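User: quick one, fold this
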Amino acid sequence: MPDLASDFCAILLVDPTGLIVADNAAARQWWRAGELVGRPFVSLFAFEVVSRDPDFLAAQWDGLLASGLGRPARLAAQPGDSSATCDVLVQLEEVSGGPGGYFATVRPAAAGRATAREAAEEGEAGSGMRLLTEQGGAGFFDLELK
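Assistant:
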């Protein structure tokens, strides 16, 4: 597994369906698994359930879009065919113009933590309550079913 400097940043261009369209040298250095172009982006990470089924990969891609679009999501990168993983922060940003797609940045998790406060916020970012209050309409209901 390559040693990642704190300034390491892999950048990949991903199409709307989750397939890698282009990559940079840092991405090729990290994932020494041959050609990245044409592979499902989610195949670069370790998940609890793994499948090569296209429907399953599409569902993982949808989940990653929901958690990593516009904000960092912590994932376990799996370089090459190795079973070893490394914690990384993945962030997706929409490409403006052209056929659409996403820029995906992948960097070591430690590189995304400039301060203890940011690290704490990152830990809270995935909490359901915080996502609900920041991203959706929070509602409180009193259901007295007597």
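User: anything notable?
Assistant: The first strand starts at residue 10 and ends at 14.
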